[in-house]
Design goal:
Elements: E1 3-8, H1 14-32, E2 40-45, E3 64-71, H2 76-94, E4 101-108
Parallel strand pairs: 1-2, 3-4
Antiparallel strand pairs: 1-3
Helix pairs in contact: 1-2
Length: 132
């Protein structure tokens, strides 16, 4: 169950967060070759100077930090495509320069992800982890 965490240094509208989360789910599903029902997303808002990256000189233009906990097994190409896709969606939705974003991916065994009815298996191409 990937947990995709987005931290942004501005106030965001609920409608924008809802549409962004759906775009993120679709992107993750397509790039990572999996279903969508197990994807969890957190969006956290911070004041302008409560989120920083060392290279950012103008935080008023926006800062975004993304942490993604994913299952092990994806290729570097998939991970890079996902990372750049996150950046593209953030830039499109909130006009934050890509140079002012930072993405970290952390990989876990499938059995580290738990839902009520089960834990997830290791990732397999074309899977839907919640299908019976």
């Amino acid at each position: 169950m990937p947990h995709l965490q987005f931290e942004i240094n501005r106030s965001l509208k609920d409608d924008d967060k809802i549409s962004f989360a759906e775009q993120v789910r679709q992107l993750f599903s397509e790039v990572m070759d999996t279903g969508t029902d197990h994807i969890s997303i957190s969006i956290r808002e911070f004041a302008t100077h409560n989120l920083s990256i060392g290279r950012v000189k103008d935080p008023e233009k926006g800062v975004a930090v993304v942490n993604a906990d994913i299952r092990v097994g994806r290729t570097m190409e998939q991970r890079r495509t996902l990372t750049l896709g996150f950046m593209q969606l953030i830039q499109q939705k909130w006009c934050i320069p890509k140079e002012q974003m930072y993405v970290t991916l952390t990989e876990h065994k499938g059995e580290d992800f738990h839902l009520l009815e089960r834990y997830l298996a290791s990732w397999q191409e074309g899977e839907d982890p919640l299908a019976d």
